[in-house]
TrEMBL record:
Pfam family for this entry, one: ketoacyl-synt
Domain Ketosynthase family 3 (KS3): 1-395
Matching PANTHER family: BETA-KETOACYL SYNTHASE, POLYKETIDE SYNTHASE-RELATED
Protein name: Beta-ketoacyl-[acyl-carrier-protein] synthase family protein
Keyword check for NADP: no
Organism: Lysobacter yangpyeongensis
Length: 396
């Protein structure tokens, strides 16, 4: 594929707002997980005993008056993330170059604004949604996409992708296809997911939630920690002056099981091979791989198996979910931001909280950070149902 320029990128997570907050926390090995304090809507129900990566300040934030009909916690996070790292200025510059109708919006999410729907059902008035939540726009999966389009004034194609944990990685692939088809000249891609009862208790019902901070690829790992996040990247056709590039993407759907990966990681391998083929790169030219690495026993071992089947021992591969928690539909954009930070600054994260390597995982899995100049980085995002996406980024 023709490379696409990354003209701006940002993430807001439990580690803080914007790229520098993420970079500083990764470098200092300072995580954002805390004991679960998410309010419980059901009467007499105790909070789930687990650790979460919650974004601070969302409760005090208010959307501008002209966006009030989209009011909900998820869209407040979407708004907050939009204000970071000069993203608004970059969007304005793209509109000046191409016109608002030629800039697409492609947003990934897993649960969209379902927390607002949960609240509505908890406060039913004579069997109907309470008056303040009778706003159908926020009770649909497309809520994040239409909100971001309204908040930015962009008028190109608008898509919301909801493929579980691969959602905001697949936004890059969708944007690349839209630009290649000449349906737009630029695309604002991103992902937003906030925590809610359906997420916490749903994953817990699958016996996947750890009662302690998650430990990706540790021999004694017991499950994941959930988090929330929002982030964006602005993509355009590359020129000779662009420093950071999307070089390739790969997607697969192995459909092995609703919530368990293929035991040999065949779908994961296919996505990674497809991304490398589009990038025109052999595996040995990838310097850093941000793993999906959820810290569940099955997912980590299968991903490590797939990585070992494809990459040399020299690869530096790590999961950053010990810092942020698993941010679900926002994981793809957040961990793409981490891969781009590694490209820009040469700081390759290790793995937080993990101390004992799993002997079943290959030498590519690195617990300790490293620092060196790299040319290419990759991100894996694998979702329920075997819905997989891998991305390759590079420095020009």
């Amino acid at each position: 594929m023709a490379p696409l320029a990354i003209r701006a990128y940002t993430a807001t997570t439990a580690l803080g707002r914007g790229r520098e907050a993420q970079r500083r926390a990764l470098r200092e090995r300072r995580g954002g997980l805390r004991r679960n304090d998410l309010p419980v809507l059901a009467p007499d129900q105790a909070p789930l005993d687990c650790w979460i990566g919650r974004v601070a300040g969302l409760e005090e934030l208010a959307l501008p008056a002209e966006l009030a009909r989209w009011e909900c916690r998820n869209n407040r996070l979407a708004w907050l993330a939009l204000q970071q790292d000069g993203l608004r200025a970059a969007i304005d510059a793209a509109v000046a170059r191409h016109g608002a109708a030629r800039v697409a919006v492609v947003i990934g999410t897993s649960t969209a604004s379902i927390a607002a729907t949960e609240e509505g059902y908890a406060r039913l008035e004579d069997g109907a949604m309470p008056a303040d939540l009778r706003r159908p726009l926020i009770h649909t999966p497309h809520s994040p996409g239409v909100f971001v389009q309204a908040a930015t004034g962009l008028r190109g194609p608008c898509v919301t992708i909801a493929t579980a944990c691969s959602s905001s990685a697949k936004v890059f692939a969708q944007a690349a296809r839209l630009i290649e088809a000449d349906l737009c000249d630029a695309a604002l891609v991103g992902g937003i997911d906030t925590l809610c009862g359906s997420v916490l208790f749903g994953f817990n019902s699958l016996q996947l939630v750890s009662p302690e901070p998650c430990r990706p690829f540790d021999a004694a790992r017991t499950g994941l920690s959930l988090g929330e996040a929002g982030g964006y990247a602005l993509l355009e056709r590359a020129t000779a002056d662009d420093a950071l590039l999307l070089r390739g993407y790969g997607e697969s759907s192995d459909a092995h099981h609703m919530s368990t990966p293929h035991p040999q990681g065949l779908g994961a391998q296919l996505a990674m091979r497809d991304a490398l083929a589009r990038a025109g790169l052999p595996p040995e030219q990838v310097d850093y791989l941000n793993l999906h690495g959820t810290a569940t026993p099955a997912n980590d071992s299968v991903e490590a198996l797939a990585v070992a089947a494809l990459f040399p021992d020299s690869l530096h591969a790590s999961s950053t979910k010990g810092w942020t928690g698993h941010t679900l539909g926002a994981a793809g954009i957040v961990e793409s931001v981490f891969a781009l930070l590694a490209l820009e600054h040469g700081e390759l994260p290790g793995i937080l909280n993990s101390t004992t390597p799993d002997p079943a995982c290959g030498p590519q899995i690195r617990f300790e950070a490293a620092q060196r100049t790299i040319g290419n980085a990759m991100n894996n995002s694998f979702g329920f149902g075997g819905n997989n996406c891998s991305l390759v980024f590079g420095r020009a």
